[in-house]
């Protein structure tokens, strides 16, 4: 059992907690924080997800839906349906940033031409977006807010922007005299990342293909890790709950344009195998900034 505390440590114990996760695109909520969301749903807490864009630039791995790739609004509407079904599977309440339809759209991967779109989220004024989110958070009055680390996990511009906007929104709540929620950023301890690659090496059969025909690949211990994999010392809290995995898996199954689910693991459009280990890790923000900067640098 991991010695670090659960997210409810220091939280009110006499009532259900209110938890809000803020994510960039449909499926991010389940991939990055799905176990935690399911864990809190199972505990009887009130759980919400705010999604900043509808993933207009996402790659489509399902052959029968391949015609949607590159058709931003059509893909967005399809992914909205996937997201709605995934939220029901998780048992959480869902909101789009800014209301019924997102004010901003998917910016695409780093270097994509989509970042030049006038509504690209990565190019949004962070103060404007943070004010919109702060208004929604005020109405939800969360105890805990979850979002990405300052690198956005693996560097996606919208993930980085979501971290920036969410951190600023929580600051605004405090500046307005409200009781600011505890902000937690998702991290992956380096020891977990190594364990997961070793597990995958022993559990992913050779030649497993995705719906699009790609072959699942297991990264070696020597392959680079994304920036969201950090020294274990940077992690302050963990969620360890294999009992919540069925909800997470059920939600991932509702994102077939993006995720191919297997027994204990999954692949995305890059065909790299990733484990579903029944654990997620976090650090309190901005308290963790200095520690992360000391260990490996933090982007501005």
Notable characteristics:
8-stranded mixed beta sheet; Mycothiol_biosynthesis_MshB; metal-binding; EC 3.5.1.103; 300 residues; Rossmann fold; globular; alpha/beta; metal ion binding
Look at the structure and give the CATH class.
Answer: Alpha Beta
CATH architecture: 3-Layer(aba) Sandwich
Helix/strand/pairing class, anyone?
alpha/beta
For the record, the count of structural domains works out to 1
Oligomer: single chain
Count of helices?
8
- The CATH topology label is Rossmann fold
The SSE order reads EHEHEHEHHEHEEHEEEEH
Report on the structure:
Keywords: Hydrolase, Metal-binding, Zinc. It is an enzyme of class 3 (hydrolase). It comes from Serinicoccus hydrothermalis. Pfam families: PIG-L. Its EC number is 3.5.1.103. The protein is an alpha/beta fold. The protein has a single domain (18-188, 231-256, 281-293), classed as Rossmann fold (3-Layer(aba) Sandwich). Helix content is 34%, strand content 16%. It has helices at residues 28-42, 72-90, 126-140, 152-155, 157-175, 190-203, 245-252, 289-296; strands at residues 18-23, 46-51, 93-96, 144-147, 182-189, 229-230, 237-240, 260-261, 265-267, 274-275, 279-285. The strands form 2 sheets. Strands 1, 2, 3, 4, 5, 6, 7 and 11 form an 8-stranded mixed sheet that branches. A hairpin with a 6-residue loop joins strand 9 and strand 10.
């Amino acid at each position: 059992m991991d010695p670090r505390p659960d997210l409810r440590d220091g939280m009110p114990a006499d009532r259900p907690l209110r938890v809000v996760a803020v994510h960039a695109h449909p499926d991010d909520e389940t991939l990055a924080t799905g176990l935690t969301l399911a864990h809190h749903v199972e505990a009887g807490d009130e759980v919400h997800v705010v999604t900043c864009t509808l993933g207009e630039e996402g790659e489509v791995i399902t052959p029968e839906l391949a015609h949607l790739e590159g058709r931003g609004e059509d893909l967005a509407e399809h992914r909205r349906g996937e997201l709605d079904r995934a939220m029901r599977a998780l048992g959480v309440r869902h909101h789009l940033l800014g209301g019924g339809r997102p004010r901003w759209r998917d910016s695409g991967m780093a270097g994509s031409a989509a970042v030049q779109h006038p509504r690209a989220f990565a190019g949004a004024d962070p103060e404007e977006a943070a004010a919109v989110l702060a208004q929604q958070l005020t109405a939800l009055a969360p105890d805990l807010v979850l979002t990405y680390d300052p690198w956005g996990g693996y560097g996606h511009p919208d993930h980085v922007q979501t971290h920036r906007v969410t951190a600023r929104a929580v600051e605004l709540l405090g500046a307005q005299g409200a009781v600011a929620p505890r902000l937690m950023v998702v991290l992956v301890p380096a020891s977990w990342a190594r364990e997961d690659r070793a597990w995958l090496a022993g559990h992913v059969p050779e030649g497993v293909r995705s719906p699009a025909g790609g072959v699942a690949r297991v990264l070696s211990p020597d392959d680079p890790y994304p920036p969201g994999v950090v020294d274990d010392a940077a992690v302050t809290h963990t969620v360890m709950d294999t009992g919540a995995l069925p909800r997470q898996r059920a939600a991932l199954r509702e994102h077939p344009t993006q995720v191919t689910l297997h027994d204990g693991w999954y692949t995305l459009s890059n065909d790299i195998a990733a484990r579903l280990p029944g654990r997620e890790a976090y650090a309190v923000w901005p308290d963790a900034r200095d520690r992360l900067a000391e260990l490996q640098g933090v982007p501005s």
